[in-house]
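The following block was generated as part of the benchmark described in Methods. Ligand: protoporphyrin IX containing FE.
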Amino acid sequence: MDTVVDAPVKTFIQVTEIWVPEGDRLVLATGNYGALAAFEEATRAVSFGKGEGLPGKAWAEERPVVLKGFDGSYFKRIEAAAEARLTSAVALPIFDGKTLKAVLVVLCGDDENRTGAIEVWEEKDGLMMLDDGYYGAAKHFEWVSQHTHFPRGQGLPGGVWSSDTPMLFRDLGSGYRFIRADSAGKAGLTTGLGMPVPVPSGATFVLTLLSARGTPIARRFEMWDARPVKVGKEKAAILVDGICEREGPLWTDDTQQEPRRVGAHMGNIGKVLASGLPEIFTGSPKLTEGYDSMVAVPIYDDGAIAHIVAWYV
Amino acid sequence: MQKLVVIGAGMATGRMLEHLRDNAPEAYEITLFNAEPRGNYNRIMLSPVLSGEKSFEEIVTHDEAWYAGNEITCRFGEKVLSVDTQRKVVTGEKGEVAYDKLVFGTGSSAFIIPLPGHDLPGVVAFRDLEDTTAMVEAAGKPGSKAVVIGGGLLGLEAAAALRLRGMDVTVLHIATHLMERQLDPAAGYLLKKDLEKRGINVILEAQTKEIVGDGRAQQVNLGDGTELPCDIVVMAVGIRPAVKLAQDAGIPCGRAIKVDAQMRTETPDVYAVGECVEYAGNLFGLVAPLYDQAKVLAKTLLGEDETFTMRELSTKLKVTGCDLFSAGDFAEAPGREDVVYRDPARGIYKRLVIEDDKLIGAVMYGDTADGNWFFGLIKDGTDISEMRETLIFGPAYQGGGSADPLSAVAALPPDAEICGCNGVCKGDIVAAIEGGATDLGAVRAVTKASASCGTCTGLVEQVLSVTLGDDFVLPTAQPVCGCTDLTHEDVRRLIKVQELKSQDAVWQELGWKTRNGCHVCRPAINYYLLADWPLDYQDDAQSRFVNERNHANIQKDGTYSVMPRMYGGMTTPEELIAIAEAAKKYNAVVKVTGGQRIDLLGIRKEDLPAIWHDMNAAGMVSGHAYTKGLRTVKTCVGSDWCRFGTQDSTGLGIKLEKRLWGSWTPHKFKLAVSGCPRNCAEATCKDLGVVCVDSGYQIGVGGAAGMDLKETERLHDAKTEEEVLDWTVAFLQLYRENAKYLDRPYKWLAKVGLDWVKDVLADETERKALIERFDISQSVYQVDPWAERARPGEAEKFQPLADLTVRAAE
Ligand SMILES: Cc1cc2nc3c(=O)[nH]c(=O)nc-3n(C[C@H](O)[C@H](O)[C@H](O)COP(=O)(O)OP(=O)(O)OC[C@H]3O[C@@H](n4cnc5c(N)ncnc54)[C@H](O)[C@@H]3O)c2cc1C
Ligand code: HEM
Ligand code: SF4
């Protein structure tokens, strides 16, 4: 594997952090703050009770939350965020049935040059409607998305909803629900990752990450299937889909080659399988396929990890 | 060069060309025609391309660079119009090309039901990229509708993909359940439910009457009066082998082009492969058997023997989130028994069909984890009577659950010590791996972990596995032999740690599976015991190879060789006279060997004790030319005689040999001493070689000059002869105590690392201790085997030792 890290790119997400419940509070487990040391320091000093701040809200409301513009909001680290020029955030609670395992928070800065989208879709009256989303500079796409809905089985949100698995779409600019695709193409969006967000209430949420070439949300995506009905009784995961800027397609056609498979504790995905928690890996490009960092998130179903999605920047 | 023309750049010919170019790149000059305006791609992945879950670029299997690199003349976008097998030419749309050998790989075309309106624009099949693009375009119109005719594999993959693209989709299927050829009704029911959950409308037992529209397909009408407005109609009702071209050329066809098990058609020099062939009455529609055919054809074209055989097939559906698997035969029939498992809450259905204690069919929906295992049982015709009761629960149930072998290592904190000998902790090893040390050898080189006693090798490998995931493959340890699961390294370690001092102790305490070992493990165990416990263990001649048992090298013709020791390659007139007399007396052939000795060849077995006696009488002992032990010390003439000589190489060689002879080692051990770097004694390819220099002595180790050729690496620079002797003895003893039986020093060094050896020997107490242990061993083993067995005169015959099995039986 070549581990030469390419020239740094401007990434869409600037901060990724994982909060885990400890007693009745959420404490920071890991975070990737890049160069934003002051914000990191401010963060290390806080913890959140249920309903407090953004992570606490995701926990209390048991749903993914998008927050745009921190001023005057319930966001707790307003000053530090303002200094770091962070303006928006998305919190993703990870539930195993009724138990909260962790809250993943991503923070983005407002920048006219950063394009991408992080969206939360929610089922209402048999249709997937946009709950909220953060789009950076993709304003037209934002408007179109607000006025689009997806029936079962249609498009990324509808596909994830009806198949109950994460999905990775290529070529967002072609096909895939006409107007939105057209606008996605114009906004330069290329790859879309959609994942189900199971919550205790049984409501249906889908989170999508739409990545653009210039300011990628990720430069490598992986989707691992860990359901016992697919991998058997032993804790394991197989790589079912993925795409990488450098290595190209990561899937295998099983008439030609068996997919990659890892067991618990084997490497980064093995660590998630074993811990059951989302993880951020930074600092050793050798261990993150040559990229600076990797985020791996488990998705639960039926009392066990069903899938793991991972993205690398 | 012969000319090979291939018609069709599909999945079968693509694979065939790969085999051909891999095995004999120069065999043919190749021209490849393809009606599609592109080379080969993975056709089966068109479904996810249609859905947007893959891009076309991702599924290209042979790109321009591949064809160019393999010097294949591509005529893509050019259909072959005719073939003349008399003149041996192929005519394409742009002209003719001659062939010596011709391959048909024309695949299939989609079958279009000749309904009224079937030829309207907007009616498409699902076979190639053009079809796919047409469907994607149709999906681009808001609110567009698709009707898919055919509820088989292809139709359903198209339906699910078009739904993802945002269309309203209706599937029309003529049978009573979906995919009736691969699924039973119960699984078909679950599949239908699953597709309906995706918003796809499924109509079973549909009688499609006609397709109507004004200039293009706009509506499908069914026999029961149902009207289905649409923007596109996808026909996916089956395929027909594309054989018209072959038929027109007079190549014998049944339902497809007839081939034999070598993929030859009945027309000379014409071959066929893929979906366009018929073999023993069978047609093909899945890729697995086509890959087999491709391999067979490549061999046939290279004049090699290979035979195609039919194999069982399994089916999966490539719709994300739909898990189904089917294989074998599951039609109802007398004598067949079903095992069914259902979990309604989770939408799981599994059915196994058993006949004559064999699994013959398996259908699974919702839980396909064990699909490949069941498929294996079907293919191999395994007798399942023993596991019948639990069969449906899969392999995990049969073998009992497996623990998680890595959890203990994963849980260790970074400061946990992994390698006790060198004090290396987990964090150091992880850091080394992050720094690029991605295998055991590299970790050992960087951290020294597992470079000493090696006990922690397994742990280090587990740390590699935990850190690297599937990029590191845990090696499976090689046991000594079938008598045990332990490796040589394990056995050596346990003999020391548990103080096992006899073979019986080893067999018992280490749980040997045989009564007293076998011809593979016994020599090794015998050596380990005598090396570790020289005073306690009694060497067992019966555990030795025949040469060592008879103390002579058995030669090609069954006679033996006798080679007296000549310390440092020095001899005397008296010795030479004795040797010459013996040679005459026993009719020997005399050879000067590569190790500076004189070998007497052609000695009859019964003469051995007598000739040994004669040699002993002249003051000579065995040269041990037959042992896994110390062989010879080769020397040059050195400073006494040579003008270049810096030290007394001969004298040193004699001292070394006198000290070392008689010792047993894991494999043979050869030495040499050269008097200067001109190196006339070739000391730099020996197990241990000394090169004298002005300032002293350079000791090199780990050389080899056999099948492997290796130069020695520097162990130490010594100032005095005394130091050379110390280091040599200590090195030899370390090798004796640690190496795996039959590893020459260079192999052993490759495993433990020269650095570790240097570190150990540099420690003076350690060195002294090694020397002491060596001397103890020599007190027992530096004995001349000849003296023990020599008998004067010819009268007394040498009684061959009983063979191992007879002895063991006593
Ligand atoms: C959408 C789809 C999904 C599938 N899914 C699966 C699956 O999951 N599993 C599975 O096992 N199989 C699957 N299949 C079937 C599999 O793709 C075929 O078995 C396989 O492609 C056949 O290979 P082939 O080389 O015989 O023919 P093809 O791959 O069809 O290649 C034949 C080539 O010959 C060319 N040709 C034909 N006539 C001429 C002529 N006169 N002159 C020049 N060129 C000509 C054609 O243009 C074509 O490119 C699927 C097929 C499709 C279409
Ligand atoms: C039954 C088979 C063999 C017999 C009987 C045999 C016998 C001998 C003898 C008698 C010598 C002289 C040793 C000495 O002077 O001390 C010798 C030297 C040698 N043998 Fe063999 N040998 C055998 C197999 C091999 C094999 C398989 C190899 C190579 C892998 C090999 C490589 C050598 C070399 C390189 C020497 C020269 C040693 C030196 O100069 O120090 N021999 N052999
Ligand atoms: S190695 Fe040097 S000293 Fe020995 S014989 Fe050759 S030239 Fe002379």
